[in-house]
Amino acid sequence: MRSLSLVLSLVLSASGLGFSTGHAAEAPRPNIIIILSDDMGFSDLGCYGGEIQTPNLDRLAANGLRFTQFYNTARCCPTRACLLTGVYPHQAGVGHMMEDRGYDGYRGDLNRQTVTIAEVLRTAGYRNYAVGKWHVTKATKPEGPKDNWPLQRGFDRFYGTITGAGSYFDPGTLTRDNTMISPFADPEYKPSVFYYTDAISDHAVRFIREHVATARTSPFFMYVAYTAAHWPLHALEEDIAKYRGRYDGGYEPIRRARFERLKQMGLISPNWELSPQVGDWDKVEHKEWEIRCMEVYAAQIDRMDRGIGRILEALRETGQWENTIVFYLQDNGACQEAIGRTGTWRRPVEPSLPPIALDAIRTDVRPSQNRRGVPTLSGPFIMPGPEDTYISYGINWANVSNTPFREYKHFVHEGGIATPLIVHWPAGLTRRGDLEHQPGHLIDLMATCVELAGAQYPTEFQGHKIIPMEGVSLVPLFKGQPIKRKEPIFFEHEGNRAVRDGKWKLVAKENQPWELYDMEADRTEMHDLSAQYPEVVARLAAAWDEWAKRANVLPLGAWRAETKDTFSTKTQFVLAPGAQLPRTEAPYVVGKGLKITAEIQAVGTSGVIVAQGGSAHGYALYIQDGKPCFAVRHKNQLKTVVGSQPLSQGPGVLSVTWSNDVVKILWNKAVLAEAKEIPPLTNMPQDGLQIGRDDNGLVGDYPEENAFSGKLGKVIIEVLP
Ligand SMILES: [Ca+2]
Ligand SMILES: [Ca+2]
Question: Residue 472: which of 442, 498, 497, 501 has the closest Cα?
């Protein structure tokens, strides 16, 4: 059957028709929809044990197939690169995020040694549509290169965002086809309230209808990549209201209930232990806020599910329901990143920054303000949900989302890489409501689509030699037949590494020794068997090494290498509170002096005024115990200059000059500190710059993020020769 459809597709693509008679008239090739959601845990969906209402996905599961051991790559970009190309992310050039680290596995852009599913299916007569988050290119400027945007990688239409995360009410890099647009100046789409999840659903529906109206003789492939439920916690009030009270009991009862349902549903073995609970509800200081975080998260997923319901409805209305195969999966495990979880903002907050025109194109992932000029609000005194907030639900709820597994996004323990996979296909699936326990991985989706479409995976494409696909087709499983996987499944992200082979999983965190788990007996990874089975460890470790060599993973740690990007040549930066600059747009500080001038409207007792860099290289001006401090990191060594006394009542101007190896801190021109022998940085810091907080790696000796507790005006940074 496979060879027959292969021959057929060759004939078809040769004739350029893309639609078939004869054999295919009896069993026409299906439309294929892959729905990917973002930063969700293994047990968030109703049909995977969750309490969040997902009736549409639950119905798909009840009439389809649910995989219990499907895997992603632990992170947004690598997952998208892997899903789209059918090879491991490093082979596609996206071993980490969207920066070029100077190694082929870490280019931050899909390479041309790979083809996307859309590129392959187009050769078999499919029309291709992409909706939602793209995030497989570093080219995110409206007028920059677009050679790795969807239309240049096999898709006929695109509506979505080129970059990763962003506001749901005003997403940066919003794009239709090849043109960046403002959601508030888009003549083609004018909802009463713009909400990105709805915009994705609406455009998926629109593309289905337009396809059927204009190109119904061709099958279609559609890739729908929701950003739900990635931070920020943005949702519509009516949806949040549905979950009011649902999480009042804290973490433990929800985890416990999910664990029990997972067992009842047969999704996990009754013999596995529940991984340890991370959060202690009794110690949560801002309980109402913490509850609200999970309510908003649930609302984001609820709204996505209803959008999926509308996509399915469009299939029914257009007669495409029976022969459309729908896949649903998640790009990585629940996200523990603490974003916007500190700060002292309190409402009401009036606009205090220059407004942004409604038709202006925005490209910011983490906006510093909304269009009206209200600074972006965060911290435990601001309830998440509205468009002027930017908050994440944090590690404790992520631990709940990932029930029963441990670890999170970034890690290749099960909590980072386990995803639901729902497959639904009325015309082609003989199993209904079944569970499939075979391990599978994103790499299998290309092989599956190639078989479904009767396409031929190329050895050469547009003059480039193409890497063979890594996965196996899942199609036999749809009919209850076995699949034959020749190789183990491999993982690497940020130095975290794993290999899954049959019942064995070998896994390690960066620079840590291997751990070995028997996944049949202990999938929650509670009992490390590496000491008992050294021969299994040796065999799998050798297999991993072999894979790492051939799959562009090496050199391990290359994701930390100096980027090949060019840096800003600007010497003056005028920045608003909440502003952030990516590394390539931040002040180029190597060998330079700096002058920082910060307008302080209300003096706080703590928090970062400006930080550029992290724990290896960087500098930060911040307040601690009311005193101004200036921290410099050089090759992991920290030097901190502390002001002699707390800042007097504001408003005032705090400034630092750092030149000729001398740091001076001044408050309204009075010198509060002077220190010598602090040479300029020798390396450009990896982290970008933020005003009012320190993201990712911390420069100074202070708590994570360390949002400024007072009120800032503008901050001016001058690069001195
Ligand atoms: Ca993600
Ligand atoms: Ca930082």
Answer: 442
pLDDT given for residue 15 in this prediction: 38
- How buried is 188 (Cβ within 10 angstroms: 0-12 exposed, 13-18 middle, 19+ buried)? exposed
What per-residue string of b and e applies to 148-159 under the rule 16 or more CB within 10 Å gives b? Answer: bbbbebbbbbbb
Distance 226 CA to ligand 1 centre (A): 10
Single pTM value for the model: 0.87
18 Cα distance to chain centroid: 35
For the CA of 165, the nearest ligand: 1
3-state secondary structure of 673: strand
Active site residue: 76, 77, 82, 335, which one?
Answer: 76
Q: Could you give the domains of the chain?
A: 2-478 (3.40.720.10), 489-560 (3.30.1120.10), 572-720 (2.60.120.200)
Give the separation between CA 99 and CA 559, rounded to whole angstroms: 9
User: What are residue 696's phi and psi, to 5 degrees?
Assistant: 55, -130
Smallest-distance ligand from the CA of 72: 1
**Partners of residue 600 on adjacent β-strands:** 652, 712
Cα 173 to averaged position of ligand 2 atoms, centre (Å): 24
Determine whether 76 is an active site residue.
yes
Distance 73 CA to ligand 1 centre (A): 10
* Model pLDDT, residue 139: 94
pLDDT 10s digits, 658-681: 999 999 999 998 999 999 999 999
Dist. CA 286 → ligand 1 center (Å): 27
Cα 95 to the chain's mean position, in Å? 14
Angle between helices 2-15 and 443-453 (to 10 degrees): 70
Please, which residues have CB less than 5 A from ligand 2, an ion?
A: 614, 687, 694, 696-697
User: Considering the chain, what is the average pLDDT of its residues?
Assistant: 94
Distance 331 CA to ligand 1 centre (A): 5
* CA 708 to ligand 2 centroid distance, Å: 14
- Within a 10 A sphere around the Cβ of 192, how many other Cβ atoms? 4
Ligand in closest contact with the CA of 409: 1
Task: Tell me how far the alpha carbon of residue 337 is from its chain's centroid.
Answer: 11
* Catalytic site residue from 90, 96, 135, 634: 135
Distance (angstroms) between ligand 2 centre and the Cα of 385 equals 25
As beta bridge partners, residue 587 has none
Ligand nearest to the CA of 694: 2
Torsion angles phi and psi, residue 234, rounded to 5: -120, 125
Strand order in the sheet with 572-575: 572-575, 711-720, 593-602, 652-659, 662-667, 670-675
User: Region 39-53: what's the mean pLDDT?
Assistant: 98
Residue type, 84: L
Structure tokens at 643: 């002001």
The runs of H, that is alpha helices, within 63-147 are 76-85, 117-122
